[in-house]
Amino acid sequence: MAVMTYREALNMALREEMRRDGRVFVIGEEVGLYEGAYKVTQGLLKEFGPRRVVDTPICESGFTGVGIGAAMVGLRPVVEMMTFNFAIIALDQIVNTAAKLHYMSGGQFNVPIVIRGPGGPAAQLAAQHSQSMETYFYHVPGLKVVRPTTPMDAKGLLKSSIRDDNPVIFIESETLYPVKGEVPEDPDFVIPLGKAVVRREGKDVTVIAYMGMMYRAMEVAEDLAKEGLSVELVDPRTLRPMDTETIIGSVRKTHRLVVVEAGAGFAGMGSEIASFVTEQAFDDLDAPVERVTGANAPMPYARNLEKLKTPSKDKIAAAVRRVCGANGG
Amino acid sequence: MAKTVAQQKAIPGPGLDPQLARRLLGTMLLIRRFEEKAAEAYTLGKIGGFLHLYIGEEAVAAGATSALRPDDYAISAYREHGHCLAKGADPRRMMAELFGRRDGLSKGKGGSMHLFDRSVNFLGGHAIVGAHLPLAAGVGLAIKYDGRDQVVVCYFGDGAVAQGEFHESLNLAALWKLPVIYLCENNRYAMGTSTERALAQTEIWKFGQTYGIASERVDGMDVDGDLEVRPDVRDRVRAGGRHGRSCRARRRRPGGRPGARRSDAVAHRGGHLPVPRPLDARPRGSGLPDQGGSRAREAA
Asked: Does residue A44 register a pLDDT over 50?
């Protein structure tokens, strides 16, 4: 184990996979000479050269399509979106082509592509650069969607994503890039896609969160422990396919569930989780499932308004207390 | 299996080798007959969804494929039956696909607009206008990445030219010197909208020039006068160039939707099969049985 930042963990994953497999290459805006808008690809051009670290002009649809075409005939591209908000420009390529080629060609062609970059609320980046983009992708059959919370997950899940034979949407976070954590240096270390993790054991209530919301929920759990509430924290890590088994298992244990997500709540992750928990574990629930979500508005710029838009510790704590108080607790 | 003309050594211009001329005619006739049968089955309700026929444009696919090697790639939009047949796909498996059968090329999951055949390097079958052009650049990038000497032919219609991805793809292919041949089948109508109503520059080949891609306009109805992809073009692209071609072609059938009406302008365009000159002079020295030539004329 080594202690490193989330950014360094991603860089290590890219480097190891590029060393392991000559078909893996990186393509996107500023990934080479500039070494990445957020320095995730730092040093890759120097080690692997311009053949495998391809700088593109600003044309998300074009270079995503290039990645898909290259993947159809045997390469394994890692496409960087400078921020995932820009992936909307390539949404047609991702949804209509990458996600569907394997199916609509009757299995003749597959698209082993990873599309990665930061997304979600950051630091006053305002309406067009702060969206929780996962919702746009996890609805689509044929796509896998990953949101890695810790440096260790960032490395292990990115490596699995690159090794996957089908398209993976891998959304990081600007605010997590400098976060430090323990990361295995073993080049064979991977975390399988579709596996949730219990980050904190508890018995009174299950809280599901990922990315920045998980760090916030962790603080809430520590605070509430002082009040005698025992919170179990589950991080899905992969949103599609979702590890429903781990989530249901936790709900059967605690009988209460709160889902926290940074994005707007309507038809969000929390809606889906509440739905399958109700379908599969209705009799285990002692209280209605609660969702703590971002406000139903674009992200404002002003710092105080930005804070109002995203789920706060207070809101999370209040939801946890409500579900624990329901039905006599 | 369909006969492919892919392995023939083509000689550009009017001095077309009679053997090649015969194969070109065979490919064109195969496409014409396939499409006529598909139209019949569509009318009978045995083929569903959209059916975009290639009738009237056969010379482009036949001519272009004649200059390719079997291991070269072809990628197309949704009026792709002819490109897929010319590349050498099994017409029975293609028709099975149109019928939605499990023995179809894509196991019945793709249909008319999503024909793929990995065994002949036919990469589809893409039904969002313009979206497959960046894919072609990606295939070109992979060829260059691996240091191979294949080329990819990218067929598209005049309707794709107004899309941003046309320009993004040409820019990237030119910038990175990718072995892509862009072949525009300009039948002058994107569904019901004429190029005059859609493009500020209707000389489509000039867009290629803008990106520094050697480009030219050819007559897509003159299969032997100017083969759609001449061997010298292919070899130049193989050696690291790019190439753009805009073919004038005539689509005889209207668009692919049930109940699609042909506008007057569309209805009045022709749909004859261009018979290669050496064969058109039949029976004087073409070596072709009478039947072949006469059937071709019948199709005119």
From this structure: yes
